[in-house]
Write a structure and sequence with these properties.
291 residues, rod-shaped, 14% strand, 63% helix, Ribosomal Protein S5, domain 2, 10 helices
């Protein structure tokens, strides 16, 4: 089966007063291109998280985010009452010493002074919290892989239709191929007969006709193209991670179709080749998104 490189996964986990959120998204890419954004306290585990992602996703342009949504209580700044009391006593002492009245907005002034309002510092993550984070990352990755599988199933169905259509068009070439040979033979003989007074060896003519017609024979191209079509389906049904190989097979299919077109020497055959190229271009465009 095939997997798409496009995907999205998200998971949320709770630990004490924190809501830990993990988001991961991926697009197509020739290799693994991973960028991460995470809360400062989890930076120590970045290499572990990267190994988890690259081990499952293999390749693609991947964006990973790990952030925290704390509860209102946990996110509320703290007032250092002891510091406020010290500032207030100093203000009163200064007022008495200078004879200047205490300001009416004393509380507002106190809140602006250093170290009165404090926030929690970044703390060291314990093993229990890391296990919760790890499970959240694994869940987000699994959700992204499910997304990739669904997208891969849609691509697989599309490819099968394209391959089937190319096969049908290849079969439709046969009547025109036989008709083309007879027309070429008749046209050459007719032109020779119009040359009055010219004598020719019929045996030599037949040999030249055989040689000329063999140059236009497309049986080998048809056989190789048929083999490529079958091989493409075989690889699709195999293990995941075959996107590059499918791309190579599509290129080989294009070579045979192009050669078939250059040898056709027939308007109907050339029209069929154009339709085959259209189906193949759809494959080439979408195969870039296969993992």
């Amino acid at each position: 089966m095939i997997y798409s490189m496009t995907g999205y996964g998200k998971s949320v986990a709770l630990f004490q007063d924190k809501k830990i959120c993990v988001e991961i998204r991926s697009l197509n890419g020739k290799a693994m291109d991973l960028s991460t954004r995470m809360a400062p306290q989890y930076k120590a585990y970045e290499m572990d998280i990267r190994a988890m992602i690259t081990g499952r996703l293999e390749r693609g342009k991947v964006d990973f985010a790990l952030y925290i949504e704390q509860s209102e209580k946990a996110d509320t700044p703290s007032l250092n009452v002891a510091v406020m009391q010290s500032y207030l006593e100093q203000m009163r002492a200064a007022a008495e010493a200078t004879g200047v009245a205490m300001p009416e907005n004393a509380m507002e002034l106190l809140l602006r002074l250093p170290d009165v309002v404090t926030r929690k510092e970044v703390y060291e993550v314990g093993e229990d919290e890391w296990q919760i984070v790890r499970e959240a990352v694994e869940k987000a990755i699994e959700e992204l892989m499910d997304f990739r599988r669904q997208e891969g199933d849609a691509l697989s169905n599309k490819f099968r239709k394209n391959i089937e259509r190319i096969g049908e068009l290849l079969v439709s070439v046969e009547p025109y191929e036989k008709e083309r040979v007879e027309k070429i033979r008749a046209r050459i003989v007719d032109n020779l007969q119009k040359m009055v007074g010219i004598e020719y060896d019929s045996n030599c003519l037949e040999q030249e006709l055989i040689y000329y017609i063999e140059k236009l024979d497309v049986n080998e191209e048809k056989q190789r193209l048929t083999n490529h079509l079958e091989y493409f389906i075989e690889i699709m049904n195999g293990p995941i991670g075959q996107g590059k190989k499918l791309g190579f097979i599509a290129q080989e299919m294009g070579r045979e179709i192009n050669t078939l077109g250059s040898k056709s020497n027939n308007a109907q055959m050339q029209n069929i080749v154009v339709m085959m190229k259209d189906e193949l271009e759809q494959i080439k465009e979408q195969v870039l998104n296969v993992m």
